[in-house]
What we know:
This protein has helices spanning 5-18, 37-52, 70-78, 99-102, 111-118, 121-129, 172-180, 193-198, 209-214, 217-220, 240-244, 248-282, 294-298, 301-307, 311-322, and strands at 24-29, 57-62, 84-88, 135-141, 146-150, 165-168, 184-187, 204-207, 223-230, 234-239, 286-288. The protein is of the alpha/beta class.
Amino acid sequence: MKLTLTAALLAGSALATAATACETTLRSADTHPEGYPTVVAVQEMGKMLEERTGGRLCIEVFPSAQLGEEKDTIEQTQFGVIDMLRVSMGPFNNIIEETQVVSLPYIFRSVDHMHHVMDGPVGDEILAAFGDHDLVGLAFYDGGSRSFYNSEKPITSMADLAGMKFRVMQSDIFVDMVSALGANATPLPYGEVYSSIQTGVIDGAENNWPSYESSGHFEVAKYYTLDQHLIVPEVLVMSKTSWDKLSPEDQEAVRQAAKDSVPLMREMWAEREAESEQKVLDAGVEVVTDIDKTPFIEAMKPVYEKHVTSDKLKDLVERIQATE
């Protein structure tokens, strides 16, 4: 059944009202605001879960980083303080080796290629890797393609990046990527980016259309370059502590509801990307689309050499590149 964004939002509101009647309500964290595709997808997952378990299980989503920034919520989920978490893959790069591969610049040829990889055996293997870190990997969501934006000038080539300061997620791969392009990487929590650009602590950051728009970053960084250096999937995980409290039947219900929320999320994501792009263009942002990515891709060779060191990771890279 095709569920529109409006219908999904209404479903999410109904869920919030009904959550108090459930036997067990799982607390789920997200850094993004109410109405964002990842938030709505988890709310819809909760609705499916409530229906399928006869009210035994519900999900209450806490958007807008109400439970903390991503790094903090990962730790809280590992300890069982938070039951579920939708988070970018970047912050996991220094924790779970396998997540490094899908965070490599230009590892995916397109969004469709990323879907084929993450929906297949490689995706299953990466989800399973969370099990060694007090987490249960449930599903992958879309994070769009990430590109650079800044407050200083349009970036039309690699040379324009030289010496500029860009916020990145707290991930060694992201830091090394920016450094390899000749710019200076500044790891910062997502919630500090707006004020840091506004005050000149950094020149810009990198992200997808919806994040660039919903965060208001386009208001202070009016140059956006579609270099699309990263197509990093996002992940929905559950605390192993919370998971172990569920019966096998309810565990399967959670896993299936997470999987069933993915098509909805992808549909909403495509819709939201188009809306965000139009809003940003209407605000007068200068978008650079005609850019030769070849020098950017070639500059990533030392990043791959540094981070793809084990046979396990080399095998994953080869399998991703071989996926049609």
